[in-house]
Specification:
Layout lengths: L2 H16 L3 H13 L4 H5 L6 H35 L1
Helix pairs in contact: 1-2, 1-4
């Protein structure tokens, strides 16, 4: 599959697996692409398969969830610090 088809497949999987809107799924894929996450996939055609698309969909969704959780915990710490002052 082409690089563009691969990215489209990842976005589709994100909507199906995680009940994301098309816009949210596309944003996840575009953000990952902007961070050079898919550079090797562009260079190596063998990495652009349906099985690999599912792996990447899970990976970028999990990374986003982990980032959100880290930010939430940091905000909680800031609130706690302000309360103890």
């Amino acid at each position: 599959m082409t690089y563009e088809e691969f990215l489209d497949e990842i976005a589709t999987l994100l909507t199906e697996m995680y009940d994301l809107s098309d816009e949210a799924a596309i944003k996840l894929v575009v953000d990952a692409q902007a961070n050079d996450y898919f550079v090797t996939h562009d260079d190596k055609e063998e990495l652009r398969s349906f099985a690999q698309a599912k792996i990447e969909a899970v990976a970028i969704y999990t990374a986003k969830q982990n980032k959100n959780e880290t930010q939430r915990k940091q905000q909680q710490r800031q609130v706690q610090k302000k309360k103890t002052r």
